[in-house]
Design goal:
- With about 260 residues, this protein is of the alpha/beta class.
- The N and C termini lie far apart (about 40 Å).
- Strand 1, helix 1 and strand 2 form a beta-alpha-beta unit.
- Helix 1 packs across helix 7 and helix 4 packs parallel to helix 5.
- Helix content is about 40%, strand content about 15%.
- It has 7 helices and 7 strands; from the N terminus they run E-H-E-H-E-H-E-H-E-H-E-H-H-E.
- It has a 7-stranded parallel β-sheet, sandwiched between helices.
């Protein structure tokens, strides 16, 4: 199935690397112009934008910390100015994780750091971009990048789990509110995707344990998530909204037979 997004404008938050980078590039390959958001990795974001430009699309790198409402407002206005008032696709990908800390030992800063970016940031971006979509009056697509951590508790990760579970329900409610305007809102709950976090010797046993629980016996690739994102951003997904998709190689299927 060929996905065509010609003439569409997408904003992908947190797209200088990893899953966000793969989504931005996949949308560009499908014909969309892309605003590449970053907070700290300017060089990475500009490299993504240049690659999309090489596909014959428009693309700019825009710095904004999504946890800061003024920066989000400025980013959306930059998108407005750079792309002539088009607001078609929003991918809420910017997020942070943290070292594991049990609730009774977690300080306020650890809690706030995760929730401010992963949930409050999603609210700020969705509100600003969603209003532009409504005003434009031609429908649109909003996609939140959630996580399997939003479906089950993980010791030491209450802040991260809460943020991702909150994102799913936030997007589901937003889908109900935006349906009259022809705007769909969905989430992808991502499984174990290989982005280099478990390449150190001390983390290798953790990675192997995770892989034993995946039905397809391999880690996901950022491109696996990007393919689903491109589909949900397309016209082929026009009758899909308020849904969550578990893209995790079957890890969430249930009891998976362990490898020896």
């Amino acid at each position: 199935m060929e996905i065509k997004l010609d003439g569409k404008l997408a904003l992908v938050t947190g797209s200088s690397k990893g899953i966000g980078r793969a989504i931005a590039l996949r949308l560009g390959e499908s014909g969309a112009d892309v605003a590449v958001n970053y907070n700290t990795d300017r060089e990475g974001a500009e490299a993504v934008a240049e690659k999309i430009q090489g596909m014959g699309r428009q693309s700019v790198a825009i710095k904004a910390d999504v946890s800061q409402v003024d920066q989000v407002k400025a980013m959306v206005e930059q998108v407005d100015s750079a792309f002539g008032g088009r607001f078609d696709i929003l991918v809420i990908n910017a997020g942070v994780s943290a070292h594991t800390t049990e609730v009774i030992n977690m300080n306020d800063e650890e809690w706030s750091c995760i929730l401010d970016t992963n949930l409050k940031g999603a609210f700020y971006v969705s509100r600003a971009f969603g209003k532009k979509m409504v005003d434009m009056g031609t429908g649109g697509r909003i996609l939140g990048i959630a996580s399997g951590a939003g479906h089950a508790g993980r010791p030491g990760s209450a802040h991260y789990c809460a943020s991702k579970a909150g994102l799913r329900l936030f997007c589901k409610t937003f889908a109900i509110e935006l349906a009259p305007y022809g705007i769909t809102v969905n989430t992808i709950s991502v499984g174990f995707v290989e982005v280099g976090k478990y390449d150190t010797p001390e983390k290798k046993p953790i990675k192997q344990d995770i892989l034993r629980r995946i039905l397809l016996r391999r880690a996901g690739r950022p491109e696996d998530i990007a393919n689903m994102a491109a589909f949900l951003a397309s016209e082929q997904a026009s009758w899909i909204t308020a849904a969550d998709f578990r893209v995790d190689g079957g890890e969430s299927a249930g009891r998976v037979p362990m490898l020896d």
